[in-house]
Design goal:
This protein is of the alpha+beta class and about 425 residues long. Helices cover about 40% and strands about 10% of the residues. It contains 18 helices and seven strands. Strands 1, 2, 3, 4, 5, 6 and 7 form a seven-stranded mixed sheet that branches. It starts with 13 loop residues before the first helix and ends with a helix. The structure holds a DNA duplex (11 and 11 nucleotides).
Length: about 425
DNA sequence: AACCCGTGGCC
DNA sequence: TGGCCAAGGGT
């Protein structure tokens, strides 16, 4: 639908925002009500027109919804995996991971029988790895406590590891048709605009207001379509920069009438991004590479990495690399190569990772370093990991690693692929190789 | 409530 | 480039 209404500049008067545009008026909002002030518009709440709103939304969704792999059969398993995968993850990435996941773990039983390392490897690159560990734990719980059948009642769904209020509601409504809302960031945005919620949406009282409206908007017997439609509208139309000209709910939207849709939702306070200077070192004996498996909890839980840590004040990255290796493994090492810097952005900090090649000092008996591998292991004291391994470049491919460490490993052990024109879509491994 | 947990795309 | 963001959950 073309943009038919003139875009309203910020600061336009409330009267100008609505005068002479009957097509944009709330249903039942007569011309005699003009001028539209914030008070008069709010008085005519969209809540008085819920059936019309519901129908407009469902009609729009029927036409404009994207074809997505989890919108085919709506099995609880697929709904669950897709919902967790898409948490904090962009749709396009989610699709490729989802397809690969379903190929590898087609059902709860297959998943429950899998090794965690394989699950994490498949998840590698998606981040928030506790999601993968929770999914596996939940699959095993479904086998143990629900006879392998995905539970259909909200309380049992909510009791699964990694399933919070959002995901429980999403599964219950989208897979089982329960009359519950799904309130994600998309829906927060849509509702905060329709009802002109003028305080930060993540906090009270806004969160409660939004949730109550969300519940009230769910039509009887159509929660699957409605909830997806709300999220789809937020993803495609009611985006950060709203496309009100294409919105099926524009006629119901208070903030649109007031010309302030782009000022909703009201954001919370922003996180401060702090720079972090860190190091990591690749220790090799012959063709073997030292890696360690991180603790189960905390950052990158159960993932493999090269040892390292922060650069302390007054310390050079080289010094930090040697010190961290001693602290984390007890190995006395020295720097033999500088592999440069990897920069990686996180939600709350920006990492500058200095990467070095290392070798052991004082090898066993003063002989060649190869003697350290198996027959004569180096004296090891792991302090920052649960497990270690002398691995090979080939095996490294099959260990789940954090993105920055994977980037380093690829730069060392994988030739950068020749200019590839194919849309690296088959597997993530291929995408990795063509980066 | 506030903070931690990852990542890559976008502009 | 860098700040912001995306179908949250756990503590």
């Amino acid at each position: 639908m073309p943009q038919t209404r003139k875009k309203l500049p910020n600061g336009v008067s409330k009267k100008d925002a609505s005068a002479g545009q009957p097509a944009s008026l709330l249903p039942g909002f007569e011309e005699s009500c003009l001028p539209a002030t914030a008070d008069t518009v709010r008085h005519l709440t969209p809540g008085d027109h819920i059936p019309g709103l519901q129908k407009a939304l469902l009609d729009w969704f029927a036409v404009h919804q994207r074809a997505l792999p989890w919108r085919v059969s709506y099995t609880p398993y697929e709904v669950w995996i897709s919902e967790v995968m898409l948490q904090q993850t962009q749709m396009e990435r989610g699709v490729s991971y989802f397809l690969r996941w379903m190929q590898r773990f087609p059902d709860v039983a297959t998943l429950a029988a899998a090794h965690e390392e394989d699950v994490l490897l498949l998840w590698e690159g998606l981040g928030y790895y506790s999601r993968a560990r929770h999914i596996l734990a939940a699959a095993r719980k479904i086998m143990a406590e629900h006879g392998g059948v995905f539970p259909s009642d909200l309380a049992s769904i909510r009791a699964l590891p990694g399933v919070g209020p959002y995901t429980a509601g999403a599964i219950a409504s989208i897979a089982f048709g329960e009359k519950l809302p799904c309130v994600d960031a998309n829906v927060e945005r849509v509702i905060s605009r329709i009802f002109d919620v003028d305080s930060p949406v993540k906090q009270e009282p806004a969160a409660g207001v939004i949730h109550r409206w969300a519940l009230k908007l769910v039509p009887e017997g159509k929660s699957r379509e409605h909830n997806q439609a709300m999220m789809e509208l937020g993803a495609l139309v009611c985006r950060k920069k709203p496309l009100c000209g294409a919105c099926p709910l524009a006629a119901f939207c208070i903030s649109h009438h007031l010309g302030i849709a782009d000022q909703r939702p009201v954001p919370g306070k922003r996180a401060v991004i702090k720079p972090v200077n860190a190091v990591t070192g690749v220790l090799r004996i012959g063709k073997n590479i030292f890696v360690q498996k991180r603790p189960p909890s905390g950052v990158w839980g159960n993932l493999w990495e090269f040892p390292g840590g922060r650069v302390e004040p007054g310390e050079s990255p080289e010094q930090a690399s040697v010190r961290e290796f001693m602290e984390e493994t007890g190995f006395e090492v020295r720097v033999t190569a500088n592999y440069g810097v990897i920069r990686h952005g996180y939600t709350t900090y920006r990492l500058t990772l200095h990467c070095f090649g290392l070798e052991l000092m004082n090898p066993c008996g003063g002989a060649e370093a190869e003697k350290y591998s198996e027959a004569c292991p180096p004296p090891l004291q792991l302090t920052a990991a649960q497990q270690y391994k002398w691995t090979t470049p080939e095996e490294l491919e099959n260990l789940a690693m954090p993105a920055a460490h994977r980037k380093l490993a690829d730069s060392l052990f994988n030739k950068p692929a020749a200019t590839s024109d194919e849309p690296a879509s088959a597997t993530v491994r291929q995408a990795r190789l063509t980066e």
